[in-house]
From TrEMBL:
NAD(+) binds at G70, T71, T72, A95, S96, N97, F98. InterPro entries: DapB_C, DapB_N, DHDPR_bac, NAD(P)-bd_dom_sf. (S)-2,3,4,5-tetrahydrodipicolinate binds at H131, G140, T141. It comes from Polaribacter glomeratus. Residues 101-230 form the Dihydrodipicolinate reductase C-terminal domain. Signal peptide: none annotated. This is 4-hydroxy-tetrahydrodipicolinate reductase. Pathway: Amino-acid biosynthesis; L-lysine biosynthesis via DAP pathway; (S)-tetrahydrodipicolinate from L-aspartate: step 4/4. Pfam families: DapB_C, DapB_N.
Amino acid sequence: MKIALLGYGRMGKEIEKIAISRGHEIVIRKDVDDDIEISLADVAIDFSVPTSAFKNISNCLNNNVPVISGTTGWLDNYKEAVALCTEKKGAFIYASNFSLGVNIFFELNKQLAKMMQTIEGYTISMEEIHHTLKLDAPSGTAITLAEGIIENSSKNNWELAEKTSEENIAIVAKRIPDVPGTHTVWYASEVDTIEIKHTAHSRKGFALGAVIAAEWIVNKTGVFSMKDVLNIR
Ligand SMILES: NC(=O)C1=CN([C@@H]2O[C@H](COP(=O)(O)OP(=O)(O)OC[C@H]3O[C@@H](n4cnc5c(N)ncnc54)[C@H](O)[C@@H]3O)[C@@H](O)[C@H]2O)C=CC1
Ligand SMILES: O=C(O)C1=N[C@H](C(=O)O)C[C@H](O)C1
């Protein structure tokens, strides 16, 4: 496949290595807000910055190029991207986290929230740890985890805070040099703590998932998720 990389930073470079090792060709490497001939590509993979993701995605959809986006922090425009994809009969996937492990963790998190729904005495809280160059907080993955809990509990929202309230799940965001991404969910009671945790050891898992999603989406029409790609039920 001919792949356009929209964003050629840490993730763009990691994706390039994996894409080439799987027999693909990189035909575009876009790393600033310039004009590119996106139609040269069979598929585009956007790992850019929150302020550019929606424009990059729109450009792909307007030119009938399937697009995968892993950029976080731009979701105020997500519904617009979905509407454009539907209007243009295009193909689009956004995932806050493309790694297989995190997508399993998302399901585990929802199951645990369901089980805890009727159990009294536990307070939920969350933490995400990332490298110091990360632009957004909380992480997209932490937001997806919080949404999974909200769907399956009496909580209505999440907030960046130390302590969970009646309404909101507290998320603590820590920034430590070189950490690729660690997410923890706790249910603490007076007598014990239940903890589920995902630790990324490198960016390889995110990059591999993004390339697998790009291979999967070509010749499809619609808005999909990593659950579709990985066939998680
Ligand atoms: N969904 C997932 O699995 C993952 C998502 N991410 C997210 O992906 C994004 C990128 O992460 P990194 O590669 O670590 O960041 P990075 O800062 O290393 O790379 C982003 C690149 O985008 C470039 N850029 C700026 N304006 C652009 C434009 N208009 N078009 C194309 N590129 C442009 C920047 O010059 C920079 O090199 C972040 O939002 C991050 O949160 C990161 C890892 C995994
Ligand atoms: O910026 C990162 O590095 C990461 N961003 C994603 C997020 O915001 O959840 C995914 C991963 O945790 C790494």
